């Protein structure tokens, strides 16, 4: 019988803890403010930005919203970021990705001050994570660690397999599991004997962007399975990279999609905003 790892419950727990912390900070006269920038009006981005603003409101974090037109130039966007970098009232800067094609995302990410990089994408933040120094951690992998720990699952000494090596999920995920003293293997599209490697895992984190590819045959009996993937199937229903119905027959604990990793990303963004007062 598997345990369902409920991201809705755990993310609510985290948001409530943050809300209390923020109220305490306010009582001491400390206000936290996140600047959210969206360029263009991609509908999915608008939903994400709206959810981030709602979360700020719930926790008591102030938010500044910049909705810029699609034809905004790279120079204009970089100038706004520079302005926010030097604004003492702004603790965190979030630029919603993806950006329109004429804007260089890497340049934008590098322009955000590492002290305000609440998405954790700046090379300085990534470097700090890899050498164990304080800095912002990418929200989705940070959320995965919280899901595992708050479900009472120990990471130390465990065989952890991360499926995917992207800069925003797979790589930081592997660094975080290593920081928690897991024994970490990272797999990607050139990995040989993928099934065998996955079947070694006590903790399997799947972030490959392939709908329902990982079924029970990739999973060791009793393993913890964390599904980072998000897709819509042919009936417009959300699904992950893991075939949940098959995987739950062998997994010891597993996240659903939706309601697993998804809600954690915003909770950890909020956590990074609160944490920013220690990084500034
Ligand atoms: P990317 O496409 O950037 O990376 C996918 C990774 O998986 C790559 O490293 C790739 O290998 C590897 N891969 C692809 N196919 C295979 C395969 N058949 N076998 C082994 N490895 C494979 O994806 P992201 O990391 O950005 O996202 C992964 C998933 O997570 C997506 O479904 C995305 O929507 C979701 N996501 C969810 C978030 C959330 O908040 N829940 C946040 C971010 C992402 P290689 O490097 O060799 O090409």
Automatic annotation (TrEMBL):
Protein's organism: Coprococcus eutactus
Swiss-Prot/TrEMBL catalytic activity: (6R)-5,10-methylene-5,6,7,8-tetrahydrofolate + NADP(+) = (6R)-5,10-methenyltetrahydrofolate + NADPH; (6R)-5,10-methenyltetrahydrofolate + H2O = (6R)-10-formyltetrahydrofolate + H(+)
Positions of the Tetrahydrofolate dehydrogenase/cyclohydrolase NAD(P)-binding domain: 138-278
Protein known as: Bifunctional protein FolD
Start and end residues of each Tetrahydrofolate dehydrogenase/cyclohydrolase catalytic domain: 5-119
Pathway involvement of the protein, from the record: One-carbon metabolism; tetrahydrofolate interconversion
Pfam families, per database record: THF_DHG_CYH, THF_DHG_CYH_C
Keyword terms, alphabetized: Amino-acid biosynthesis, Histidine biosynthesis, Hydrolase, Methionine biosynthesis, Multifunctional enzyme, NADP, One-carbon metabolism, Oxidoreductase, Purine biosynthesis
Positions bound to NADP(+): 164-166, 230
Subunit comment: Homodimer.
GO cellular component: cytosol
GO molecular function: methenyltetrahydrofolate cyclohydrolase activity; methylenetetrahydrofolate dehydrogenase (NADP+) activity
Similarity annotation: Belongs to the tetrahydrofolate dehydrogenase/cyclohydrolase family.
GO BP term, example: purine nucleotide biosynthetic process
InterPro entries: Aminoacid_DH-like_N_sf, NAD(P)-bd_dom_sf, THF_DH/CycHdrlase, THF_DH/CycHdrlase_cat_dom, THF_DH/CycHdrlase_CS, THF_DH/CycHdrlase_NAD-bd_dom
EC number: 1.5.1.5, 3.5.4.9
Function: Catalyzes the oxidation of 5,10-methylenetetrahydrofolate to 5,10-methenyltetrahydrofolate and then the hydrolysis of 5,10-methenyltetrahydrofolate to 10-formyltetrahydrofolate.
